[in-house]
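Record pair follows.
FIRST:
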Amino acid sequence: MKKVKIAILGLGTVGSGVYKLLERRKQEMPSKAGVEIEIAKILVRNLEKAEKKVGRELLTDDWREIVEDESISVIIEVMGGMEPACTIIMEAFRAGKHVVSANKDLIASRGKELLEAAKDNGCDFLFEAAVAGGIPILRPMKQCLAGNEISDIMGIFNGTTNFILTKMTDDGMEFEDALRVAKELGYAEADPTADVEGYDAGRKVAILASIAFHSRVVFEDVYTEGISKINAKDIQYAKELGCDIKLLGVAKNTDNGIEARVHPMLIPSGHPLASVKDAFNAVFVHGDAVDDAMFYGRGAGEMPTASAIVGDVIDILRDIEWGCCGRIGCSCYRELPVKAIGDVESKYFMRLHAEDKPGVLATIAGVFGNNAVSISKLIQKNTQDGFAELAIVTDLVKEYHFRDAVTVLGGMSVIQKISSIIRVL
C-alpha cells in the first residue's frame, strides 16, 4: 500500500497533540484514507527540549531539510506567527507539497497569496483549525452549505474572553480577578492582549467572512473592540435588562457591503449564544436555504485543535490517493466592499453619570434627538454627591450618529462621566 510521509512544523502544545493523534490513528489510516502514513520529520527550535517528547531521529531545526526532502508530501504548520511560517509554506508549495495550517494570524492577512500559490502548484492548502479549533466550520461552509447564500455569521470565537465573562456573570467577579483565574487555569496567556482586546477573534472573523461571502476580507478590515473595559456593574445592568454580555464576532453580507466586527454585546439571555459558557466557542450561521445553524464545541486546546488538523490531513491523503489535489481552493470570486464601522447600524447600551436636577434628562434626550438617536429604555438609580447614574438603551442607529451624540454629551458640564458604551443585539 502507498505510504505518505508527513512533516510537522512545531512541537508546542498543538504540535504535540497532532503528533500524538497521528500516532494514535496510524493503524486506521489505510481504512480511513487509503494510504499508510509516516511522520518523517518535526521542526523544532530547541532540539534538546524536544528530545524529551519524541525520538531524536525525527527532529530537525532546519526547515529546508523538510522542504527539500522530495519524499515528504504533506507539511503541517503549527509554529504560528507570520515569519518564517509564510516563507516556509510558500517554499513548500513551490516544492509541490500540500500544507495544513492552524495559523490564523497568517491566513487572516495573507490568505489570498497563499491560496493562489497552492493553486498554481496544484497543492492542497487546508486550515480548518485556524478559526474555531475543534469545531468544524470551514469545511461545512465550503461544502455542506455551499448551496446557500450566507447572509449572517455571529459567534463566540475566543474561549479566554468567554471564560472571563462567564466568571464575571456567574461569580460576580471584576475583570482583573477573572483574568487572573483564567491565567491560573491556563486559559489566558501571560500577555492576554490578543484575546481580551478582540484581535484573535477578529482574525477568525476575517477568514470566515471571506469564505462565507466569497469576497476577500483581511484582518485589517475587521473592527475590533475588547472586553477590558467591561465591569461588574455592566454585567448587573445586563441582567436587569434580561441579557448577558458576550464578546461576539459578527459578519454580515448587506446590500451596501460586508460588515466585519468584533466587540462586546448585550444579547438576550434566551439566545442560543448566551448559553455558551466557560472556554467553549459557538458559531451561528444564517443561510437562505438552511435557515439557522449553530456549531458548538471546544474552540482551542491541544486535542480539539489536533482533531481539526488531522481531519484536514485525512482529506489531503484521500486527494493524493485519488489524484484530485487542489479540488477545493479559494472561494473568493466576488469583490465586495467592506463597510466602515461608522456606517454600521446597532443598538447601544450607555451608562453615564449626570447631575441630578430638573431638565438634565430632557437635555440628554435632546442631544440624542438632534443626532438621530432614539431612546428605547432609560433607568435612573444610585444618586450620589448630586449625580445620578443613568443606563440608556437606544433603538437602531448608525454608528456615526451615535458617536456624534456621545461627543456632544462628553463635553457637557452636566455630565460627570460616560462609564460604558456596549452594543446591543
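SECOND:
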Amino acid sequence: MINKHQGSCLCGSVKYELLGDFQSFFLCHCTRCQKDTGSAHAANLFAKASTLTWLQGEYDVKTYQYPNSLHAKSFCQQCGSALPTIAESINSVVVPAGSLDSPVSIMPTAKIFAGSSASWSANLGDVPSYEKLPGQTKS
C-alpha cells in the first residue's frame, strides 16, 4: 500500500498530495538552508520515486535554483511558505516537514552540515519553553 501525505502553504492557496514513502528526514544546517528558512536549519523529508500532485494553486508555486548547486527551494508566491521540490537528480521529492498537514511519519534521520550550524543554535535544550508568547494572556 502506498502512503498518501497532504500539505499546504500558510495562506491556503496551494495544496498538494504526495504518494510514496519518506526514506530520510534531514535537519540541514548549511548556510544556504539557514538563509532560505531564516532559521537554524531546514527540516526536509526525502521521498524517492514518489508522485507529487498539486491539488490547488500550482501556478502560485515558484522554484528558486541556487546557481551551480543541488540547492533548490519551492515556495508559494502569495505567502512565501516553503513547498515540495522535485529533485530529479536524486529521483526524489524534497518535502519541507512544516508544509505537511498530515502527520510526519518518521523521526529525523540526521543533522547534516552540522559544521555550519549557527552558533546560537547550540544547547537549545537549556532555553525555556512556553505554550504561548510569554506575557500574553489571550491566544
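COMMENT: The domain at 4-116 is CATH 2.170.150.70 (Metal Binding Protein, Guanine Nucleotide Exchange Factor; Chain A).
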